[in-house]
Amino acid sequence: MSDTKITKELYGLYVQRFGNCPRTPYQAEYYKKWLDLLNECSSNEEAEEKSKQNWLYTGGAAAVAMDRVFANKQAAQELGWTDVAEYCDEIIGKIKADPYYTFTHSSLWIDLQAKKNGWIRTIEGFHRLFVDFMEYDDARNDAQRALASIAEDVKMLSKPSSDFATLAAMPKFRALIDCSDEYYREFTDTVSKAIATGNLDTIQWSAESCKDQIDELWNMKDSLTEECRHWYSQEVKKPTVRLTPETSDGKYKLIEIE
Amino acid sequence: MDPIIQMMLQGYIDGLDTLKTSDEAILQEIEDLKKEMTAFGESQNDSSTFFTNFQNAGLMGKYMDLSTKVNLAAQAAEAPSENKQERHIPTPSEWLEPFRTAYDYIKNYPIRERGLAVYRKLFEIGDKHTNVTEFLAEVERENLLWKLCSEDTLGILDITLTGMDPLYKGLTYSTLRNIEAWKASICEADAYYQQDLFAEDNVKYPARLLQPEHYVICLGAHLIAYRGPQGKERIMEMIATGNCPRPEFMSKAAGMVITKQQARRTLDIIKKSLGLTFDDIISDEFLKWKLISTSNVYGLSRAYIQSNPNILDILADTVRNEIIPDISLVDSIRREASLNFGRWRMPEDPEYKKAEDIARQAYQHLPYFQYEDQLNNGSIHVGTGEGFDIKPLAGTSSR
Q: Of B63, B189, B240, which has the smallest distance from its Cβ to A67's Cβ?
């Protein structure tokens, strides 16, 4: 097979693969143009010389980079990350204008990730606020700790808004929290109050209401001696190791440690 | 300047000092950036937020761009002039050289067979050809360059999964979604797309899965405080031994009252927020174990150590007969003697080591642990079992 023929076959395969993938229009276009050029020329060398007259000669790496950014853009659009999608368009425009842009501005990948992180951190932060609420709500005895955590975690909110109440009203954020609507309202009301006032109610746990029970136990302790001795004489159980099953529908296996 | 910040900053300044260029304009840019970084470092007083602020201020970007600029300029200066006679078209064997280097590294880990098989296929095709274009066409027909990356990654993800507790969905979720993303991808850009698409879910679903777990851990903490060695068991021990200092006795009794109230509240919250009853929790094979304090002893939550093997029965009995009906403290102590649960103790160090050995024996055949051993460059080490016997307890599954 001649060099030109096999090169055409190779580039045809590239066109086919990148053309079949909705994420790689720039590489598909790049190899299609090469294929067209090869079809116009009688040798690889002639095609290479002609390619120097346009973007084909330097465009391979740029096409790869543009597809990578384009893939990020498509995902951003599907996720509703509008600023990320716009930033991707901006980068693609810059690479089109300068094929070496990704080499001279390698920090663009960090900037792109930072923009994406804004959205991801907001989701993390919103969920952390729910964990803060859960921890506080369980015994409602440590308001200061809850307030400190809420003050810290609310800083993570930025996309699409840094306002907790605005985010809490969005279906996307409601879907993050697995609880009844009633409990979700308690969560949003409590966190909103904490943010607005810097205060949370606490429960003063006390055994005072059961003082009679405690006194009764103290007074009757001697009559419970035999029962307690019987219990106390029982062997102390040995610790066990719990082994996980092989599959997600299996059961744990307990093994006593001798 | 904060000494920790100064140390972190110095790394970047040293990096800028290593950039070699004779271009006066670039040299000026380097000096300007060093000054800007120093001024930034002086404006910061919290080393924990320094790196994020450094990035957000765009200094990391400037540092990278400047480094790239200098390196590209150096490469351009060293590049041979464009001359047809000097051009050398590589043979398939030469083209494959970097892949052989990668293969030589990966073959140290035979467990990564999935990726290694693709390398061998690539070399086999390379051996068949003398013309690099013909070689590349066959590689492309087999889609081998993509498979080199995807098969090895999928292989590692599959291996990682075997080190995890399969019931622990909050843990396995991200790896399973990652596997899904790589399987759905047909090229590098597609992999970026698929992974970005899962970025929110990778936070969202584990977080949702952790919620019931969190409540159950809280409930378990209250129950253990009520029933365990620091609660009811301590009172029973004091009565049994006749050593009952009143302040401690009254304090432990008050503790039982309070922790019972707290457990009742947590049960209400679980019902209100998730619609789950205690029976729902205790019938969930994964969730029920979150009631007790256990430590992972092997792999990525592949085995746990815990105290009394009957502990779940004890806690379930406590909830059903003491917490929900809210019986008196005297009745609580009296009924305990008729039960055969016995005393419990918390796991201690010697048991921890033995638990690890039992787990090692049970799981040494799993790829994750074989890979771990291969990464450690050691032979697979197996617990001897010396000094303890392995006896599955009645009612638990056996392999």
A: B189
Structure-model confidence comparison of residues B60 and A167, the more confident one: A167
Rounded CA separation B58/B62 (Å): 6
Sort B75 into a burial class: Cβ within 10 Å, 0-12 / 13-18 / 19+: exposed
Q: Does B214 touch chain A (CB under 8 A)?
A: yes
* Long-range contacts of B386-389, Cβ-Cβ distance < 8 Å, separation of 24 or more: B387/A258, B387/B354, B388/A257, B388/A258, B388/B354, B388/B357, B388/B358, B389/A258
ipTM reported for the complex, 2 dp = 0.85
Q: Which two tokens stand for residue A27?
A: 């590489």
Give the nearest partner residue to A10 out of B140, B203, B244, using CB atoms. Answer: B140
What is the tens place of the pLDDT at every residue in A60-72?
999 999 999 999 9
Question: What is the rounded distance in angstroms from the CA atom of residue B145 to the CA atom of residue B153?
Answer: 13
List chain B domain ranges: 3-76, 92-203, 206-347
Beta strands in chain B (DSSP E): 295-298, 303-306
Of the pLDDT bands very low, low, confident and very high (cuts 50, 70, 90), residue A105 is confident
Among the listed residues A73, A120, A119, the one whose alpha carbon sits nearest the alpha carbon of residue A92: A73
Residue B180 tokens, joined: 């899904």
In chain B, the residue whose alpha carbon lies closest to the alpha carbon of A242 is B304
What is the pTM (predicted TM-score) of this model? 0.81
Residue B9 and residue A129: Cα distance in Å, rounded? 33
Q: Report d(CA B144, CA A20) in Å as an integer.
A: 17
pLDDT in tens, B137-164: 999 999 999 999 999 999 999 999 999 9
Beta-carbon separation of B131 and A234 below 8 A:
no
CA A156/CA A169 separation, integer angstroms: 17
Residues 6 or more apart in contact with residue B279 via CB below 8 angstroms: none
> A80 — alpha (psi -120 to 50), left (phi > 0) or beta?
left
What residues of A are in contact with residue B265 (Cβ under 8 Å)?
138-139
Cβ-Cβ contacts under 8 Å, B137 against chain A = 6, 9-10, 13
Size of interface A-B (CB pairs under 8 A): 324
Chain A residue whose CA is closest to B388: A258
Longest dimension (CA), chain A: 109
Residue B285 touches partner A, C-beta closer than 8 Å: yes
